[in-house]
Amino acid sequence: MLILEFFRWWYGDGLVVRIKSLFFILSRTADAFSIGLMFKTLFRPFKRLDAVDSGLTRSIDAIFRDLIDKLISRLIGFFARSFMIIAGFCSIIILSIVSIFIIILHLAMPVLPAIGIYLMLFGGIPYVSL
Q1: C-alpha 92 chain-centroid distance
Q2: Residue 7 falls within a domain, yes or no?
């Protein structure tokens, strides 16, 4: 009777708890990389606060230098955000594959000792000729 209760819990509530914990880990990973926020702000220009922005009294050289500075900072930001989005997707894909493997292993775990005993008794050990 105790063995039947173990199997009922293992394939019932225990499996549900395992799947919920894996989904929680995946959602925390997506939240850590802020993929949704990164997509929303990927092409939005960065807003820099300029200490001196007098518009009319600035020379062409200063305006051009500010333009280049802003362009470089926006390109660096675009590449940094793109890298974070790619890293987030890669980590979520890897975690999804590992989660599927963990669920399959969870389902097979109670049967593995019986398979090991069967292989040990009926030819699981390879024959080595001397």
Answers
A1: 3
A2: yes
Domain count, the chain: 1
Domain contains 21: yes
**At CA 71, angle to CA 68 and CA 74, rounded to 5?**
150
Q: Give the domain extent around 70.
A: 2-43+57-112
Could you tell me how many helices (H) and strands (E) the chain has, helices first? 5, 0
Write the single-letter amino acid at 55: G
> 102 Cβ partners below 8 Å, 6+ apart?
18, 22
Q: Minimal CA–CA distance to 26: which of 117, 103, 115? A: 103
- pLDDT tens string 7-61: 899 899 999 999 999 999 999 998 998 888 888 877 766 555 455 555 567 788 8
User: Distance (Å, rounded) from C-alpha 29 to C-alpha 36?
Assistant: 12
Enter the pTM of the model.
0.71
Domain-embedded: residue 52: no
Count CB neighbours of 34 within 10 A. Answer: 15
Q: Is residue 90 part of a domain?
A: yes
